[in-house]
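hey so u asked for the seq, here:
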Amino acid sequence: DYDDPIVPEPPPGPNVIIFYVDDLGWQDTTLNDVDAPTPWETPNVERMAAQAMNFPQAYAPAPSCTPSRVALMTGKHPARTGVTHVQGGAPPVGRVSDSLMAPYFPARMNVEEVSLADALMNYGYRTGHIGKWHMAVNHHAFPGPLDQGFLYSSRTRGLQRSMQPDRLSDFATDAPNDPYRLDEDGRPYDAVTEDALDFMRENLDAPFFLYLCHWLVHWPVQIRNRALLEYYSEKLGIPFPSDPGPVTTPGQTNPYYGAMVDTLDWSLGKVMDFLEETDDPRHPGQKLIENTYLIFTSDNGGALRHAEEIITTNAPLAMGKTSAKEGGIRVPFLIMGPDIPEGVTSQELLNQLDLYPTILTLTGAPGDPEQIAQFDGVDLTPYLFGETEWIPKADGTRRDTLYWHFPHILELHSAIRKGDFKLLKDYETNDYDLFRLYGDEGERLDWEEAIDLTQDPGYTAIRDQMIVELETFLEGMNASYPHKNPQYRNVSSLPGFHSMPSFLQKGYNAVTGMAYATFEAGEGKSPVDYAYLLYTPNGGHEDEEWFPVPAEVNQRNGLVHAALPLEATHFLFNLVDENNFLVSSVNLEFTVPPTPATHYMDPLEPDVVRPEIRYEKGAVLHGWNVRYPVFFSGGPFYGFGVSSGGWYYGEPDAEDWVFSFVDGWIRLD
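ran it, structure tokens below
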């Protein structure tokens, strides 16, 4: 897909490629291989590392896909944007097994954001996206790449399209009509890799930004390369799979996954080959790689399992994807390009939030001042170019602190990394855990996050300091927090349950455009802390998405109300009481009546302005229990409907309108 806006003349800047992997763990390559060596072979990662800076203490902004991607593209922390997990944009729903429930969070990157792609496109860069997007309510919903600064997008899944009927029945062949036809090296055709090469090939005459987002190594765990699956089965000393069932042996023993990591490495090698072999027409006598910054990293830590299948391990790092512990957020990170030292390993703390400000400096793009003012990362270039001994903040002091916020099942954590220490806040217990990851000389200590130091008097000062800094950060981000869950099977055991208010009814005033709901208030009921309205403009659609609107609360009268956007099809209210219970009016679902276009005077009550609704012949209307003036194309008929009595008062000019009443509905024939 292409977008064709008017863009400035190309600047003389370098190319930028972000090779963004899905769910690749810190231990899944030979880059950061500690303890037991990984059996997966990644020679191209090693090849890149020899020409790059390696940051073993690099982190994703979040332990799951969407928030990391939105953070990278906006430069803003997930706690600031509110996008803290995948599959957002829906009313919060608790599970009966959990005492807490996640708050509402958006599904998308806000269309008002000036994304990294916007900033580069506006500067004259050719911007291309390949592969996974996942910054909307689903993979192909609005807003997509072409809505957020990319001139070209290919959302192909490539090799990760599901194998049918199972993962042992759809291997690539050398047949001419096979869409995954094996090449001369026995590798299946991968549209993600080939589309990336095509984009570069077609944009050599201008600087380009390529956001190459593999679906590898995300579930489904499969590989179309039978020979590679045979190779890793043999290397692991296990038989070739005889059935497609789950692999349940622990550690890095899944041959499908090993073959996926190997294939990902092959793809990186294809990109590097192209850069090394292709002449740069903008710089005669040079190859493309001499004027290109290439960044290799992953959106979160490795996924440990899917249902019964064991995928990988991040050991010695604790946990994995969806955890704020090290295995869920620490990721491989390489950066290479002009003036960046080759073959250097740095132990500086790095976050992918740093990429937006860094790339602006590398390219010379000015960016948007309002966007830049909200950056939560820092510019890495002073450190990359050897101008400083550490990664500096804007004031020149060392950046030694990073934050995470993940208020979701299964982990419900916020975290802070400060120097050698890591502190986790557990929302289920409201306790803090303090771990020391490194010693004074940088030696490895507790990467497993197994030794809690919160009660050790020798660490009281750093514990208290980190608690204050974490809470101050979250407050400054206006972070959303988990709530007590009224659906919890043992909810009566939670403090405050017996005084939790309930909604009574809700409705919509078409004259004022206000939605409202009433709730239990007064003696014996907890006061409401705050409330908000959620509405969807596309209820029932496959891309159904809900958006919040602040609501006003009248505690004394037990009333909450908010202006309902005209495009709404459905709405509900959520309130949070002083004990942090989230109570929803979802069980009082209500469809918004037809939206009035203008307003007219009510002939029966001249001092009252009523909304006009226009209907076409053949329409079926409900007899609302408030009066509406109705106009028809055949001539004005001033009629007012009530649910009990039908129509009254009218001056029909068109005799061909016939009104009939069936069970409180009005039919126009």
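Residues 594-669 have pLDDT under 50 and may be disordered. Residues 25 and 145 are 26 Å apart (CA to CA).
lmk if thats what u needed
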